[in-house]
Amino acid sequence: MQKLSSDRAVLKNVIAVVLASALVVGVAFFVHRKLNPRIVFVSRFPEIWYPREKEALQQKIAGFFEGVLDQPATSEHCPWLLVVPHAGYDYSGPVAAAAYQTLLGEHGKAIRRVFILSPSHYVDFNGMALPPFTAYQTTLGTVEVDCNVVANLQHEEGCVFDDLVFHREHAIDVQIPWVQTCMPSAQIVPLVVGRLPDPAAVAQLAAALVKFLDSSTVVVVSSDLVHYGKRFNFAPFGQSASLPNDIQKLECNIIDSVVHLDRAEFEGILSQTGAAVCGKNVIRVALEIARQAWTQSGERMVALKDNSQVHVLAHANSAEIRKLSPEDSEKYESVGYAAIVAVQGS
After folding, report:
1. How far is 250 from 125, CA to CA, in rounded Å?
2. Which of 160, 229, 273, 327 is most buried, with most CB under 10 Å away?
3. Average pLDDT of 274-292?
4. How far apart are CA 306 and CA 308, in angstroms?
């Protein structure tokens, strides 16, 4: 009897400890949720840039991949940087697929964090806007934001929370279904870059981001290329049968500067031509990340040993897709799309 009473006492103590622990965990969870509520941003862009229905979007993305999967593999190493367009999927989808196909399969499964760098198309501000939400919902479901990274970035100069920026920015949104398809285990860090008033601002933002680079992180640079036409205030070539070739040459020069990871070359082209590139600031930040990361080693790597580590996988423009004639130069418009991938150095 004495042993039975002792066992009961021990059992009561164990139950009391378990209940107390559960209470502590419950209270801690409640406090955490109160202080850090889950805020889901719901996409406002389906049916504008891509299908609203889940199955239709999945089929569209699968169709784009079918068109590019016969391309030779760029590298046995995993990409760390993608430059991809952000137009409607009917326009830029095939080009985007050429970049994202490098993250299908095992490469994509290994990715845990995706930075999405976007220009600001509608809101004018200095620096870089951080997401005020903790998850992002698209047609394909909900993906979590890496809140730890965001919490660290809020202390960096030039980084601000701005809800309004994200409500209208399609350049972030169009990338997320690709991420959800190719990198199903990844969290995202969506960032919108505004005006960068001087070179120091570019370097500061790059330095803030480069510390998070590792072998399970991808940087997606969301940018179209040259916007040509009166509507874009950039139409320097005039009426000419060679207009498409002139635009193509300019875009190839810009692409080459990115392939060379040469920010000075990129800046020189913009300065000399005044080319309207909507994502020029995010490209600047990406090229500066590459420059700074060049000297890193270990897990905070990305040692790019030579230009063979960077690949151009596709290049197209909206004028070709729409089959516009250059004969009417007053109405001729073109937006360029490129898929550029940088792989991790070995």
Report:
1. 28
2. 229
3. 93
4. 5
**Angle formed at CA 123 by CA 117 and CA 126, multiple of 5 degrees:** 70
Task: Report the C-alpha gap between 185 and 187 in whole angstroms.
Answer: 7
**b (16+ CB within 10 A) / e for 95-106:** bbbbbbbbbbee
Written as one letter, the residue type at 343 is: V
Residue 67: pLDDT band by 50, 70, 90 thresholds? Answer: confident
pLDDT of residue 47: 76
Tokens of 164: 């309004």
Q: How many residues does the chain have?
A: 346
138 contacts: CB under 8 Å, gap ≥ 6: 43, 46, 173, 176, 177, 180
DSSP code of residue 314: E
Rounded CA separation 28/2 (Å): 39
- DSSP secondary structure string, 135-195? EEEETTEEEEB-HHHHHHHTTSTTEEE-HHHHHH-HHHHTTHHHHHHH-TT-EEEEEEE-B
Report the alpha-carbon distance of residue 128 to residue 89 in Å, rounded.
26
Residue 103 per-residue DSSP state: G
How many CA atoms within 13 Å lie on the side-chain side of 37? 5
Dist. CA 177–CA 259, nearest whole Å: 26
Compute the distance between CA of residue 40 and CA of residue 95 in angstroms, rounded to an integer.
29
Task: Kindly state the DSSP code that residue 271 receives in the 8-state scheme.
Answer: H
Nearest of 94, 99, 69, 73 to residue 84 by alpha carbon: 99
> Cα Rg for the chain, rounded, in angstroms?
24
What confidence tier does 297 reach under pLDDT thresholds 50, 70, 90? very low
pLDDT, one tens digit per residue, over 104-127 is 989 999 999 999 999 999 999 999
